[in-house]
Structure formats: structure tokens, C-alpha cells
Amino acid sequence: EAGVTQSPTHLIKTRGQQATLRCSPISGHTSVYWYQQALGLGLQFLLWYDEGEERNRGNFPPRFSGRQFPNYSSELNVNALELEDSALYLCASSSVGSGNTIYFGEGSWLTVV
Amino acid sequence: GQNIDQPTEMTATEGAIVQINCTYQTSGFNGLFWYQQHAGEAPTFLSYNVLDGLEEKGRFSSFLSRSKGYSYLLLKELQMKDSASYLCAVRDALGAGSYQLTFGKGTKLSVIP
Prior knowledge:
The complex is a heterodimer.
Chain A: E1 5-7, E2 10-13, E3 19-24, E4 31-37, E5 44-50, E6 53-57, E7 64-68, E8 74-78, E9 87-94, E10 103-104, E11 108-112
Parallel strand pairs in A: 2-11
Antiparallel strand pairs in A: 1-3, 3-8, 4-5, 4-9, 5-6, 7-8, 9-10, 9-11
Chain B: E1 2-5, E2 9-13, E3 18-26, E4 32-37, E5 44-49, E6 53-57, E7 60-65, E8 70-75, E9 84-91, E10 101-103, E11 107-112
Parallel strand pairs in B: 2-11
Antiparallel strand pairs in B: 1-3, 3-8, 4-5, 4-9, 6-7, 7-8, 9-10, 9-11
């Protein structure tokens, strides 16, 4: 069974541009979570989607947004990129059937120059 | 909100036992998770405690005391491949169906020969 998949693996953008990151959850999982892991920092919760709806968001500015599609895949959009947005962005998924344990993808490295 | 503390770094010898502590202060509690994260990789799920006591899974055990806001991860028969960061995470009880996790900053474990 395939795990959580994310694309792209690496992304380099210029300050002020927009970045779009994509995530496909484990088959059968309806919840998708996005986390940011900046160098030397812990995982910071960004967004949680379930059944196509945004259920909760962390303490991030509105330029961080996303959506979940009918097939439960998700994308994270970061507008007006700033240098401090450089980080590993991790997507995770869960379902009631998995005991709501969260399983992570390999992440997307975003570098803003 | 959540406040989760764990030591920043630990060093232990191959074949030995190491205990990584985690304390938390939360407005709600609905389970505590431990993840392992090798450098540059995604976190992988290790264990889950929601009731007080010890959960054993092979060389790894995790303990929870809800009254003390305390957990530990015990690693036995340490191997070099156990060198990684260990992340403590708490699931809040914000409301029905709230399953996101709040993570500590992680403990970097170095296993030496």
C-alpha cells in the first residue's frame, strides 16, 4: 500500500513568488494535515482538512492557504514568499480506521532565495 | 494551547538503554504520540498512549502519566541506526473529531560505538 506522497521533492522560488505543494494521502484516509519544519525548529501545524473542508489552521498568516479535493488529495499554497518560509513542508494523513494515527509523507523542501 | 518540553540532545552507547522524557501542559488531552525522524526524512510513527501506563513494542516502550503530564520513550539494545530525532506530540481535545498533533521540538539522539 502506498504511503503519503508529496510533490515536488524540492522547490526553489524567489521572494514574492507563489509556491504550490501537493499531497496524496494514504488510500482510504480522509484527513490531510500540513506541517512546516524550519531548520532547527519543531513541526509547526499549518492546516487540517477533512472531507474537503478546512477544519483548523495553525498560527500562520493568511498567505498560507490550501484545499482538499474530492479524491482527498490536497495542495498547499504559499503566496508572497518570504525568506523565512524556507522549510520542509510535511503532509500527513489519517483516518478513523487507522485510529486517527497520523502518517507522514517524505516532505517537500521549499527554498526561498 | 499546548506546551511540550523534551531534551534537545542525548548521547548513548550502542547496546545500552536510553530514556527520552517529555513533559506537557495542555488545555486538553486526547493522546500522546512518539515519532522517529532521521535527518532529512519524514517522521515515522513509533507509539501511542492515551491511558496511563506502559506500552511495549519490541525494543521500544512508551510510558504515560496523565496526572503528571509526563511521558517517556524507552529504547533498549540501542543500535547505530537509532541515531535520529525523537518527537513527542500531543493530540488536543479541541472538539469532536479534532485529531491534529502539537509537536515538541524533538530530542536528537546520537548512538556511539
